[in-house]
Amino acid sequence: MLKIENLHAEIDGKAILNGLTLEVGAGEIHAIMGPNGAGKSTLAYVLGGRPGYEVTDGSVTFDGRDLLDMEPDERAAAGLFLGFQYPVEIPGVSNVQFLRTALNAQRRTRGEAEISAGDFLRVTREQADALGISMDMMKRNVNVGFSGGEKKRNEMVQMGLLDPRLAVLDETDSGLDIDALRVVGEGINRIMRAPDKAVLLITHYQRLLDIVQPNRVHILAGGRIVRSGGPELALQLEREGYREVAA
């Protein structure tokens, strides 16, 4: 589903990704771990199409299409979802307004009919209930006044509504307590664990992987994948640290 070959990228003239190669198949969940400054968030931003990140070499295909040749909204409509380490607040825009606008924009791009107000509220309530978000919170401005855990659960509601084929989640477990971590991890499993979907999960910690249980774990250091393995690789990292395992 996702194929990255020899990817080089920089920001403000500084090279961050240095020949990263990775392939994620349909039905798979891959975790990326690595020390601070290794390029994990840069990889997520490049895949999402964030401005300011320049790809200088390599290729990325998503379902056989040239991902790098697509605008960010085209990537989203094609089924890519980018989850942020720090979800932003959007004062003056309610969650339900934001989500319905985003969902209908994607449906129009795919040539589908817009979702009715009644159907939208029904599926929104289903997703919010599953993630412990009240409809009162869904009517509030996007992430304004939300705790860190509430922002992450709200982002999972967004993912559930948009129903992507590929989710790139940048440190979704950042700032979560034990209960919120379980809710978010179970949300990832419920929404994305399917034979026609895939997840690229960026994390620092084993604890989320205990819930999500990835197919593969990759260590990113110096802007490239330096080691790959099964879930046991994350356990080794917990015991020994990056210096020993990624050497």
UniProtKB/TrEMBL annotation:
Keyword Isomerase assigned: no
Transmembrane segments: none
Keywords: ATP-binding, Nucleotide-binding
Coiled-coil blocks: none
Lineage top rank: taxon: Bacteria
Domain ABC transporter stretches: 2-247
Pfam families (alphabetical): ABC_tran
GO molecular function: ATP binding; ATP hydrolysis activity
Family: Belongs to the ABC transporter superfamily. Ycf16 family.
UniProt protein name: Fe-S cluster assembly ATP-binding protein
Taxonomic source organism: Allosphingosinicella indica
